[in-house]
Q: What sequence folds into this?
């Protein structure tokens, strides 16, 4: 009876722990194939279910939010604060990564045996993805790309920035036409918004099982051996991520908002767990929105800041790219000069903005950072063994960063409500 009353967070946590245990057993006792065939698909189904609502949720909630704002200047102010917050936290994240990697030097002093162990090649698929990442369009192209020529195509391809643009424009225009005309349209979208939120609630009931299945698949897959070889590098990344969360976000919440740090972190735990097990900030978006709204962020701000954050704000990814670039350079015995380190800051900001909120996207755009400082791209092969686990950790930070922004911006607008239970 008690079990039924457990909070969703606790249930998801139990799912996660049982999943880890089950995965370890599968790995040790040789029933990984069973996990891949029968358990992992349950996790994939869960991720597909939440991904299914992302595009309509972003469009509808942003449209309704903007249409009811009735104030374009306020929208511009919220936009500017959000983007400024995202940029600052990303630059701080890379700086933490660079500082740790330069002082702890995870890539130096590896034994010959370990070096050989690491030199397994990047798979063909990843190689091709890296090639595409390097052919990235110019900044003008990226900006022009925000405007969709065909809205339907933007929806079909899930182009988040285009969808955000369309929703903002539609919302603003709705607020500019006479109320008797706009009201039915807004009512319609408000109804759809309720529908989607209901769907998210129902899907979240499956979260404990989904998380269990996802994690057991991951743990059954990666052996512990490679983790040990890359232990120092992984620990440096994880230490950096922990600093970003405990120092940067906590200070931001403390200094720029009225929310208690404890309340904030307790409130976003469900989103962090989903981010950890899915390694995708996009798929986590519906949960992040739900958590921040419970924390008292008004829908108007959450539905603007969070989809934008899930698309362009990747602090964990940027930090990881900083550490990885230095690690790979150290591995090849290349010392990095100060201008090269500054190039890392600049390119990692851009690469993390260009990183999609999907699994493994960050390791692909790492190629851009490596190329800019002339470090061999083959170096990416060295860190592939621990990619999945680090992806899971950095996604937690990406999502936490987005949520902290929503709380800070809402507070600065004097609109942060009391958290609801
Ligand atoms: N998986 C990350 C995310 O969705 C992106 C990355 O690969 O760094 O936030």
A:
């Amino acid at each position: 009876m008690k079990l039924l009353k457990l909070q969703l967070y606790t249930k998801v946590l139990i799912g996660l722990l049982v999943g880890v245990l089950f995965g370890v057993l599968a790995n040790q006792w040789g029933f990984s194939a069973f996990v891949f065939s029968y358990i992992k698909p349950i996790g994939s189904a869960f991720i597909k279910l939440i991904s299914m609502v992302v595009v309509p949720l972003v469009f509808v909630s942003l449209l309704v939010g903007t249409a009811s704002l009735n104030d374009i200047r306020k929208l511009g102010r919220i936009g500017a604060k959000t983007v400024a917050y995202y940029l600052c936290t990303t630059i701080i994240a890379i700086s933490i990564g660079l500082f740790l990697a330069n002082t702890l030097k995870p890539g130096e002093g590896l034994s010959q045996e370990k070096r050989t162990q690491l030199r397994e090649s990047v798979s063909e698929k990843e190689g091709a993805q890296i090639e595409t990442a390097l052919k990235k369009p110019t900044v003008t192209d990226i900006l022009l790309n925000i405007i969709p020529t065909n809205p339907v195509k933007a929806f079909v391809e899930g182009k988040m920035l285009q969808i955000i643009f369309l929703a903002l424009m539609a919302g603003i225009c709705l607020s500019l036409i006479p109320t008797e005309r706009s009201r039915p349209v807004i009512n319609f979208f408000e109804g759809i918004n309720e529908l989607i939120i209901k769907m998210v609630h129902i899907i979240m009931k499956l979260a404990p099982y989904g998380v269990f299945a996802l994690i057991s698949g991951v743990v059954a897959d990666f052996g512990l051996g490679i983790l040990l070889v890359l232990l120092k590098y992984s620990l440096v990344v994880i230490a950096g991520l922990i600093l970003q969360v405990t120092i940067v976000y906590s200070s931001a919440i403390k200094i720029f908002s009225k929310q208690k740090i404890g309340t904030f972190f307790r409130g976003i735990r469900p989103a962090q767990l989903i981010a950890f097990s899915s390694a995708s900030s996009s798929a986590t978006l519906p949960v992040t929105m739900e958590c921040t709204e419970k924390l008292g962020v008004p829908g108007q701000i959450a539905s603007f800041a969070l989809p934008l954050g899930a698309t362009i704000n990747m602090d964990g990814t940027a930090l990881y790219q900083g550490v990885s670039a230095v690690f790979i350079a150290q591995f090849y015995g290349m010392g990095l000069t100060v201008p090269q380190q500054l190039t890392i800051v600049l390119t990692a900001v851009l690469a993390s903005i260009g990183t999609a909120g999907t699994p493994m996207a960050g390791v692909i755009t790492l190629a851009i950072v490596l190329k800019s400082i002339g470090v061999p791209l083959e170096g990416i092969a060295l860190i592939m063994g621990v990619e999945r686990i680090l992806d899971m950790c950095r996604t937690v930070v990406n999502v936490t960063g987005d949520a902290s922004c929503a709380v800070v911006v809402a507070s600065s607008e004097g609109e942060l409500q009391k958290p609801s239970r």
User: Anything to note?
Assistant: Residues 150 and 162 are 10 Å apart (CA to CA). The pocket of aspartic acid is lined by residues 279-281, 314, 317, 355, 357-362, 391, 394-395, 398 (CB under 6 Å). The chain has 22 helices and no strands.
